[in-house]
Amino acid sequence: MRIKATIARTLAVGAALTVTAALALAPSSSATPNTPAAPENHGKKPTVVLVHGAFADASSWNGEITELERRGYPVIAAANPLRGVASDAATIRGLIESVKGDVILVGHSYGGQVITNAALGEKNVKALVYVAAFLPEKGESALDLTNKFPGSTLAATIQTVALPDGNTDLYVKQDLFPKQFAADVPLSQAKLMAATQRPVTQAALTEGSGEAAWHTIPSWSIIPTGDKNIPVKAQEWMSQRAHAHTVEINGASHAVLVSQPHAVTAQIIAAANATTR
């Protein structure tokens, strides 16, 4: 089906190993399981706003929420509508503007597309953290960026659902979800994720991005090298283009935010330390 071919290589959701502040601030590095978390800034802590991607929901961030709150960070895990880039970004922008004080904005997968647009012009957003995510330039869609490099196997796993408004919702087939999306997550948990996944519209994956906030806001990027949704080379290319401080997590899946929340948390803390002193 053409819809499946069109979706060929796009999106989704994940979490990772602990990294040092030095690693998080380096232009590019590789994380290891036993590296300590970044030291923390003991001043007033920024609010961390977490934005999930397609085929996921806000509970994907549970590991990060637990760690961040334990360390004194206010946290909001947003409900990303997954209906379209501009409309989703407007929803997240409203949330950002409701926060008093500094914000660290974190996006997973398609959520990276959303935060790139939502943060534009928002002066309280001090850092962008991308987790297995898209870092688009103006005019680029998630589909454009996925197709730029080989490596995604998402297309063959997609199930389509026609909507009354003429649009199409996309799901990952439940029996294929664990291997495709969350290969390093315990199988029982991956099956729960498959059953509770939230669909993204086809239109959202083909909609071009607006002006990119990463041109003016410092960026961090976590790249799981076992990602089957967004090609690793695409993630590396986007991160380099954005001059993002990058950490690669060897063998981690697209669901790195779920499987390895320590590294994701450490990267968020590193971004907070570097930009909100």
UniProtKB/TrEMBL annotation:
Gene3D superfamilies: alpha/beta hydrolase (3.40.50.1820). Residues 1-31 form the signal peptide. The keyword Signal applies. It comes from the Bacteria. Keywords: Signal. Residues 48-265 form the AB hydrolase-1 domain. GO terms for molecular function: catalytic activity. The keyword Transmembrane does not apply. It holds the Pfam family Abhydrolase_6. This is Pimeloyl-ACP methyl ester carboxylesterase. It comes from Kutzneria kofuensis. The lineage of its organism: Bacteria, Bacillati, Actinomycetota, Actinomycetes, Pseudonocardiales.
